[in-house]
């Protein structure tokens, strides 16, 4: 069976796997990235859009922030709409930090370009099927490419293959503990060729359900609607989507959104999920492979990048001088940030969505919480420091 060898075998070319490969390269450590989908697919898969200050700093510091700095939209606040009111949360004034709106697929494009320019190895349409020997010095990733079985031999495996990947399942039964929650709703997301009607994101709590107004550029809007978890996308023709967005967002006198052709639409289920620990023997798990948050706090991609920043340092310490301490503390350190983001994402989700049909008590609590954010500097600062990302957790 054809075999190849590298130092760190990385499964998955999402933000976690690609960033890890890039950080390892900067430290002189070799890696091979296996990705089941095509390059075109991963570069055009529409997902998250908000980068915390720490993620922007990491991308820029490591030399892949040039286009991000040119095209990314720096936002210093967000708007909350509820009960016919509108309030701006001045995040930068409250924390000294900001977020940058820049599509996840743009981050992925920039990282792929940087890896390929440096001679890095990313195998697209290479589907990892099984991990072996994780408790030995030389684990193997078995994968299929062009209808053939191949092997990647390595010192360590980084499982960066998202929620549906194979890596997490390679850990023997009884080792991992799972914590999870599903929510009784999903998000319908659309990309529209319509100039955003605002400069900052709007998070709206409405009796018909949550809505989010975001963007990708001065010409393109990104909008989301809370829908039922089993909703059929075919039941949402463009006119229905615009009517619902108007109903939930046009709650402030004199404000209206800009409409335009819908370029793409999809439905994403909502889940909170954590698996502990994030390491077993020579397998290190990162990103969505070990934790999922509902997207309301915009944390998913940021957590994936924060995990691999730790992992890059840990592998560097091992290859530089055989130090194992950072490999050993990786999981515990990463999980502190993961659980902070779990709480924040659950809290934002609970405050902004319609949780149960006909539960007026719940909806009064939500309005009270939103008013508190709108009137208390302390509470607004708490939301802001979580949203822009805490440097230390
Ligand atoms: P991924 O980006 O999922 O990358 C994993 C990669 O592994 C994929 O490219 C996959 O093809 C590959 N892979 C899987 N199995 C294998 C295998 N067996 N062999 C080889 N390769 C494999 N977050 C937000 O903050 N806001 C949002 O609006 C938002 N929307 C989302 C919409 C969707 C549909 C999804 C799935 C996620 C969304 N997220 C959002 C979350 C955010 O995009 C993720 O947290 C982020 O992608 C995590 O990065 P990752 O690298 O860990 O995983
Ligand atoms: C976007 C996605 C989010 O989940 C969020 O909370 C804010 C913005 C976006 O895709 O732009």
Automatic annotation (TrEMBL):
FAD-binding domain span: 5-344
InterPro entries per record: FAD-bd (IPR002938), FAD/NAD-bd_sf (IPR036188), HB_mOase (IPR012733), RIFMO-like (IPR050641)
EC identifiers of the protein: 1.14.13.2
GO MF annotation terms: 4-hydroxybenzoate 3-monooxygenase activity
Keyword Oxidoreductase: yes
Pfam families assigned: FAD_binding_3 (PF01494)
Enzyme class label: oxidoreductase
UniProt KW keywords: FAD, Flavoprotein, Oxidoreductase
Name of this protein: p-hydroxybenzoate 3-monooxygenase
Organism: Micromonospora ureilytica
């Amino acid at each position: 069976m054809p075999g190849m060898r590298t130092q760190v075998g990385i499964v998955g070319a999402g933000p976690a796997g690609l960033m890890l490969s890039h950080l390892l390269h900067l430290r002189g450590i070799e890696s091979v990235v296996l990705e089941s989908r095509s390059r075109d697919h991963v570069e055009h898969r529409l997902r998250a859009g908000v980068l915390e200050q720490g993620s922007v700093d990491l991308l820029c510091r490591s030399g892949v922030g040039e286009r991000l700095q040119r095209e990314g939209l720096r936002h210093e606040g967000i708007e909350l709409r509820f009960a016919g009111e509108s309030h701006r949360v001045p995040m930068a004034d409250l924390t000294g930090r900001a977020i940058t709106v820049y599509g996840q697929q743009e981050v992925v494009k920039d990282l792929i370009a940087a890896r390929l320019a440096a001679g890095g190895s990313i195998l697209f349409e290479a589907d990892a099927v099984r991990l072996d020997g994780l408790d030995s010095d030389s684990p193997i990733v078995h994968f299929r490419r062009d209808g053939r079985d191949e092997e990647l031999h390595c010192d360590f495996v980084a499982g960066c293959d998202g929620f549906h990947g194979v890596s997490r399942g390679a850990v023997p039964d009884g080792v991992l503990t799972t914590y999870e929650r599903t929510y009784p709703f999903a998000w319908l997301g659309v990309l529209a060729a319509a100039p955003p009607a605002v400069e900052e994101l709007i998070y709206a709590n409405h009796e018909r359900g949550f809505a989010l107004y975001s963007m990708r550029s001065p010409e393109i809007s990104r909008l989301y609607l809370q829908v039922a978890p089993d909703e059929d996308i075919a039941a949402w023709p463009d006119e229905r989507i615009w009517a619902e967005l108007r109903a939930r967002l046009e709650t402030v006198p004199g404000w209206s959104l800009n409409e335009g052709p819908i370029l793409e639409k999809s439905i994403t289920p909502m889940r909170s999920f954590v698996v502990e620990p994030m390491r077993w023997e020579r397998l290190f798990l990162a990103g969505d492979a070990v934790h999922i948050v509902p997207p309301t706090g915009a944390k998913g991609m940021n957590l994936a990048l924060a995990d691999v920043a730790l992992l890059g340092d840990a592998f560097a310490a091992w290859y530089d001088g055989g130090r194992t301490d950072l490999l050993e503390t990786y999981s515990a350190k990463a999980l502190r940030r993961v659980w902070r983001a779990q709480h924040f994402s659950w809290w934002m989700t609970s405050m902004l969505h319609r949780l149960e049909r006909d539960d007026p008590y719940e909806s009064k609590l939500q309005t009270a919480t939103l008013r508190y954010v709108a009137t208390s500097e302390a509470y607004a600062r708490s939301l802001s420091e979580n949203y822009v990302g805490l440097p230390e957790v």
